[in-house]
Amino acid sequence: MQSYTIGQAARLLGVSPDTARRWADAGRMATHRDEGGRRLIDGRDLAAFSVELAKGGSGEDASYTSVRNAFPGIVTAVKLGDVAAQVEIQAGPHRLVSLLTREAVEELGLEVGMEATARVKSTNVHIDRV
Fold first, then answer.
1. pTM above 0.85, yes or no
2. Hey, which of 12, 15, 110, 117 has its CA 20 to 30 A from 67?
């Protein structure tokens, strides 16, 4: 299973490394240490935490920005059918769901806990300011 450093987890969750470190210190994110002493978060634990965080909000102020078309995040679910598949990615507070072929999922080797980037192309984009 893939593991993530505090900095990588922070980027995937859309928060600062200091915030991720505080969450780990408070026991909100389970961590373990590698041979070099670095704190790591198991991919499955990070996936579950990202879903929990998105449901409850991060408690931090939202920024005033137009969302870009690339959403780096972590795979939180993979549902395989005979021909089609559904993949969910949690990218910070954003949950993205993609329908694609089973073959594509298998070729990419997608599984829960992996880092992935969802790319969105749209002809109709709405911009909201909080």
1. no
2. 110
User: Which amino acid, residue 5?
Assistant: T
Of 38, 56, 45, the residue nearest 12 (C-alpha): 45
Q: For residue 56, give the H/E element and its range.
A: helix 43-56
Residue 129 CB partners (closer than 8 Å, separation 6+)? 64
Mean pLDDT by 10 residues, the chain (130 residues): 92 90 92 94 94 68 51 93 95 90 93 89 62
Contacts of 75 (CB under 8 A, 6+ apart): 47, 87, 88, 89, 110, 111, 112, 113, 114, 115, 116
